[in-house]
């Protein structure tokens, strides 16, 4: 068992109100309004270039809206309550254990507490045999497992995942999905993008569907998959090309 998650104060719900993001004169996200609620698994879908990664970055606070309002329930962004994992994991040129230790040290956790947290995380995710291996020499699946484990060790309230398994084979993908389900069962809110429709069906409780930078559907997964409201989402689910 690990210590309780960071619980105070909650950054969720995170509200976006008429949010847009433009680079120069080019709007990349427009009129996006939604709430990210605590304890849910939200899957963000849409065609290539629809704006999914930008949406995730904006929710995580890596970029700021150029118009509209983004509001965390805690009043301000709390970096320690959020974590993000990218399609290609960003790992240090250090051992697996050191990759887990480093962000905890940045958070000024005492050495003994860090050692325990690292050991617990390695054990929990089957990484103990890899503890001393250079992280960058791991397989893609192992690297992503490490990236997710490292995010989990930070005890986030909300975890943003940008295509976490798109470069992985089916068995590595299954491990990542199991991790996501475990995080979710522990109460971590999940917001993730995926191109994998099967994965979206397996993991989503809610779906946000983006089309050309606009949020055109935001509904429960059951509603979205059984009766998408927009022709764009219907075409996407049917595998048609949309542009
Ligand atoms: N910094 C930037 N400057 C200009 N255009 C950008 C910038 N970042 C993203 N874009 C453009 O914004 C659009 C949305 O990008 P984004 O990466 O969010 O799409 P996506 O839905 O995640 O796509 P994919 O499924 O291919 O990963 C794309 O057309 C992209 O080229």
From TrEMBL:
Topology with respect to the bilayer: Peripheral membrane protein
Gene3D superfamilies in the cross-refs: P-loop containing nucleotide triphosphate hydrolases (3.40.50.300)
Domain ABC transporter: 14-237
GO cellular component terms attached to this protein's record: plasma membrane
Family: Belongs to the ABC transporter superfamily.
Protein name from the UniProt record: ATP-binding cassette domain-containing protein
Lineage of source species: Bacteria, Pseudomonadati, Pseudomonadota, Alphaproteobacteria, Rhodobacterales
Subcellular location(s) of the protein: Cell membrane
Keywords in alphabetical order: ATP-binding, Cell membrane, Membrane, Nucleotide-binding, Transport
Pfam families cross-referenced by the UniProt entry: ABC_tran (PF00005)
Chief site of localization: membrane
Matching PANTHER family: AMINO ACID IMPORT ATP-BINDING PROTEIN, GLUTAMATE_ASPARTATE IMPORT ATP-BINDING PROTEIN GLTL
GO molecular function: ATP binding; ATP hydrolysis activity
Organism in which the protein naturally occurs: Rhodovulum strictum
